[in-house]
What we know:
By secondary structure, the chain is of the alpha+beta class. 48% of the residues lie in helices and 20% in strands. Among the domains are: 2-112, Alpha-Beta Plaits (2-Layer Sandwich); 150-247, Chitinase A, domain 3 (Roll).
Amino acid sequence: MQVTKKNLSDTKVQLILAADAELLQSAKEETLKEFAKNAKVQGFREGKAPLAMVEKQVDPARLQTEFIEHAMNRLYAAALDQERLRPVEQPKVKVTKFVPFDTLEIEAEVSIVGDISLPDYKKVKIAKEKVAVTAKDVDAVIADLRAREADKKDVDRASKNGDMVVIDFKGTDAKTNEAIAGADGKNYPLSLGSNTFIPGFEPELLGLKAGEEKTFTVTFPKDYGTTSLQNRKVTFAVSVKKVQEATEPKLDDAFATKVGPFKTVAELKDDIKKELASRKEQQNEQAYADEVITKITEKAKVAIPDVLIDEQVERIERDLRQDLMYRGQTWQEYLKAEDLTEEAYRKKQRPTAEMRVKAGLVLSEISEKEKIDLSAEELDAQIAQLKAQYPDAAMQAELAKPETRRTIASRMLTDKTIAKLTAYASAAK
């Protein structure tokens, strides 16, 4: 096989490929074997006739067409392997020279992942924050438990901090006065002073009685979980249905027994502390891994084909559309609220998409460089664990699919690579 490679850009190549006799002979045999499966040759059972006899009975045009297909696939795959190329889409291929079963030359043009230049990732050092659970953290959980277990009774007076109010509310855009999907509710219980709602919302309800209404405007936080509501001014029309005085239970051993399998308040607090420590540790580990990956990715140089970034932008958009659907908001409503066109939205997502693609490619390159692998036993054990965790028939069928196994294997390999990088980053200099 002869390969001539021409770089059309950092992420696109042209390959001129000429097959050798061995590849052509192998492709011909493979093609004839496919025809032999259904060939009916007198004196032989179906599928058992010699290939030479099968060839005589096959339409020459069909044979040549199938042969070219088999030979091109073999030729292209061998060239990718020899040149260590990573294609990201189907190639554009044309036959430039063909003599039946003797000569085959093709020209292929394809987008590829370009050169990846890794930094010295073993020298990337980041201090890991220590996880600490304070008495204040534990007390906050205790306070929430007591609020949930509080006895509540309706009162005919103005509301105050500590009360529970039951409200109907509806949010509209402060500029356009249009209703906002997901910003309304009925018979919603809200504990005043709990700071569990949008900042600035609860104080507006202080001093109201059952049956009273109030309209006010608040600005959503810039880091609010729903992107479309970040920094957005929303006008709420609120109707107070009930004002309830909450009498919290005494914090004693009886309370601890009521809220869980504990005999004493000390046991309850100890369990809360352990749970908070575990949760904080998981969050800390994830944040640390993200920081390490980001720092290494920023230092790396990768030639990324546009098609990969486009696909990632589409994936981000698809996820957002699904989230909007769950929240009862249409795609066009979201774009209007954000004052964006579809084109502007996609352009806005490209930096994030590019960073995600780049991180994936960098991790893959490091995995190969570090010779990180995944044994069949490790994958089987993970699949078995997932099957035990999700016993429903639909999930069992999904886990049995080869593509699902490949996805899980890829994720496990990535996790092992990340674990290696965080170990390097946290090791003493």
